[in-house]
Amino acid sequence: MPKVANSFNPQAVEWRRVTDPSETAFLIDFEYSLLGYDAVSGRLDMLLRFSENGGHCRRHRHIAATATLVLEGEQHVSETLPSGSVNT
User: Fold this and answer.
1) How far apart are CA 16 and CA 13, in angstroms?
2) 8 lies in a domain?
3) Is 78 contained in some domain?
4) Residue 69's closest CA among 34, 19, 26?
């Protein structure tokens, strides 16, 4: 496989910060950078950074195959099943 790059600088990436102080169930605080997408195949690739204080994403559903790479912090995922129960 050909080498694409010798290094990666996260400071050179365009980060977008997301917060939502109106959410009281959990802290919404993370940053993302969109790497690319392919609308025809339905794919989205992105980088994520979560804050040290345990930030989360907003609850949402994916409508595309999504590849994420978490560079900082931890990503916690919970899935609401059709029965209404939550799988963590």
Assistant:
1) 10
2) no
3) yes
4) 34
Give domain status of residue 39, yes or no: yes
Query: Residues 34, 40, 41, CA angle at the centre, nearest 5°?
Result: 75
- Is 6 inside a domain boundary? no
Q: What is the pTM of this model?
A: 0.75
Length of the chain: 88
Q: 3-state DSSP call for residue 20?
A: coil
Residue 61 sits in which domain range?
14-87
Q: Count structural domains, the chain.
A: 1
pLDDT at 58 over 80: no
- Cβ neighbours around 8 below 10 Å, total: 10
Q: And the tokens for 67?
A: 């590849």
* pLDDT per position as a tens digit, 17-41: 999 999 888 888 899 999 888 889 9
Sheet holding 65-72, edge to edge: 16-19, 29-38, 43-50, 65-72
